[in-house]
């Protein structure tokens, strides 16, 4: 990346309160298209899209060197099933049935990859029809299962990725996915995990995205407060069921071509269709620009759980702990793990600021390598944003009711260390 441009752009790191949560509609439904990598810096992306929380589309030039673009696609732009079977035939993959609604999503099953490819080929031969329904391979952790494969390289614009930095550190999970599906497969209306950012690159095929800026989804709730499964369903026009639908704005529509990358802002609800047989690479990620949004989401989720089981508060001695357990089962994280998430992110940056960037050590350590690429100024920005959220978490009544003796260091000690590192770096 252009370090000089980034380092000089100190205004990007001005502490702008809750600017990361602003999600304004775009004039005329316009979504910017980024054509060339050599004229678009990380600084540009940070200023124009991350901080204001606006979507954009990157051209196919940003992915043309990826191994998957070379090897997973036939000469005429179709999925290269023979190559994929050779590399991944024995893998077991998660597959959703797009023709079945289960609560507000599609039911999933685990299938051998070779069985899914056999189904997909038959589905195409039968005119995109099958008695099994329209099956969509979704949320496959391919990078974790096949780390030696030359699939793609994360663009620098998305390299400040706290979610994957943390889950790699604890070696439990990641938020890097492969999606594969036939023409007509789709994903119902949703916002991404923890209200994270996401990026999605088409290896082959085309997608249609329907995007709603954060907050617009409130107009789409039914009279019980439930969001729709399909925002294109005619039933949404029934005012008796969806009383505020007429107040909603039309969605932003993006048609994503092969090779292009779509950036989805934090908290934007969306619905996605495969217009052709399509393969895509998807990441969810959080960083200093939207960690406050993640924290607000967790507070809202806990409040919803507390409302749901409020009647058991008095007779249940560990009611607050039970609320945390239920929240974690629903969202994948509770308040204590959120503290550990902030701790890992903060300590990685404190280490860099205090010990400097040893190039050899950074080469062996992915988080430090990413921090090295983005520079010291970005590490300070990250720490300032982490400190704000950590201060709020430490003062939170529900957090303080938990047994925090197992947390090391204590929240107070971590916050003191964090602020000291910021002050020293700014001297």
UniProtKB/TrEMBL annotation:
InterPro entries named in the record: Cupin_8, JmjC_dom, JMJD6_ArgDemeth/LysHydrox
SMART domains, per database record: JmjC (SM00558)
GO cellular component: cytoplasm; nucleus
Domain of life: Eukaryota
Boundaries of every JmjC domain copy: 143-302
Keyword vocabulary terms for this entry: Iron, Metal-binding, Oxidoreductase
Keyword Cell membrane recorded: no
Methyltransferase among keywords: no
SUPFAM superfamilies recorded: Clavaminate synthase-like
Cofactor dependence: Fe(2+)
GO biological process terms held by the UniProt record: positive regulation of translational termination
One Pfam family cited in the UniProt record for this chain: Cupin_8
Catalytic activity annotation: L-lysyl-[protein] + 2-oxoglutarate + O2 = 4-hydroxy-L-lysyl-[protein] + succinate + CO2
PROSITE patterns for the chain: JMJC
GO molecular function, one term: sequence-specific DNA binding
Family: Belongs to the JMJD6 family.
This protein's name: 2-oxoglutarate and iron-dependent oxygenase JMJD4
Source organism (scientific name): Menura novaehollandiae
